[in-house]
Amino acid sequence: MGNLLYLIAVILIIAWLIGFVGYSAGGIIHILLVIAVIAIVLRIIQGRNPV
User: What residues have CB less than 8 Å from 16, skipping those under 6 apart?
Assistant: First the structure.
């Protein structure tokens, strides 16, 4: 489950970067970034290495 959260976080960050650089998609890209950051924070809180 932890690896899945980390994978989702990485995918969302990459999608955010592509959206931020490539085009302006409005708030949805920033929501994806927030979800990715929350997943990483949850991983840190659970005591796992975020990297």
Answer: 29, 30, 32, 33, 36
Supply 24's token pair: 């302006």
Token pair of 6, please?
Answer: 């980390």
pTM of the model: 0.46
DSSP 32: H
Residue 27 carries which side chain, given as an amino acid letter? G
Domain ranges within the chain, ordered by starting residue = 2-45
Query: In this predicted model, what pLDDT tens digit does every residue of 13-51 receive, in sequence order?
Result: 887 777 766 665 566 777 777 888 888 888 888 876 655
Spatial distance between the Cα atoms of 41 and 1, rounded to a whole number of angstroms = 15
